[in-house]
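The methods section describes the discrete structure representation at length, but only in general terms. What matters is that the chain and its backbone geometry are given together, residue for residue. For illustration, here is how one protein appears when written out as sequence plus structure tokens:
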Amino acid sequence: MSRNPWWAGLSDAELERVPIRELGLRLEDSPLAARVARLERELDRAGITFRPHVWLATDWFSPDGVPGFAVPFFLAHPRLARLERRNMLEVEGGTVDWCMKLMRHETAHALDNAYGLRRRRRWRETFGPMSQPYREHYVPDPTSEQYVLSLDYWYAQSHPAEDFAETFSVWLEPGSDWRERYRGWPALDKLLYVDDTMKRLAREPQKVRSRARPGSLGSVGMSLRTYWRRKQARYAQDVSFEYDESLTRVFGTRGRETAARFLERTRGELRRHISAVTGQHPYLISQVMNELVLRCRRLGLRVTRSERETLIEVAALLTSVTMTFLASDAGVAEYQR
């Protein structure tokens, strides 16, 4: 698709009334085409002949029994990505690096569907039973060396299927140097399993060759406005309001700099300090800050004190939140893939 589709001249309000299926989006005419081609080159370099088919839908997912995966439509055009950010505060897969991590992850699910890996005894011994229920929320252990680290919120810990997908993603990523990075970790055994299994699959026929595209855009009649309203309602349930009162004591509603901007600007300094004070993994602290930045934006908070006073107050709050963040499900985002 060109940068000037038929709806290019519409205002944002007018565009949001357009049904998604009428946008005329095509993956092959979008920036995503180059990323799919890059994914295929990575698979080729890894000696994998399998190629997932990829289509546009409303979210990232690989349906059970389908050797392919869907990519959200808003990544197919820069203007839709901007509207996604305005409505949802972030664009999942909006950078090339993030998008490739998600594509590798979804490729693992598609590959599992293509070859029935989850039904193999060694797969179950390595990652666990697929019968384990998916949980809306999970409380990860950021210090665990049983799992690889790739997507946020230690996503590999959420379910055996996601453990496999994240392990495959790390294994496939060019230049990841996974043997050295995970040396001494139990997670290395999972990576070695993937390495061995991918070599074996080169000699096996693909069991499932369906080209089904569930949820493809042609079946999505809702407007962009309805899509974002439903998405906001769904994700609002995942956002913790527990620290709103504390945040409003640290920040106010009048001031030149937004609280969200202040937290982003001082993120590195605060992360290093809180890690040293609490002994918690810096990765955990980053996720806590993401949560607080989101709440500050929602509440419209601003910096009302001096830089030093604000840093002291925020550091105290972050220390408290970090020490209790994983004690409940409240602050952990929901992922269903």
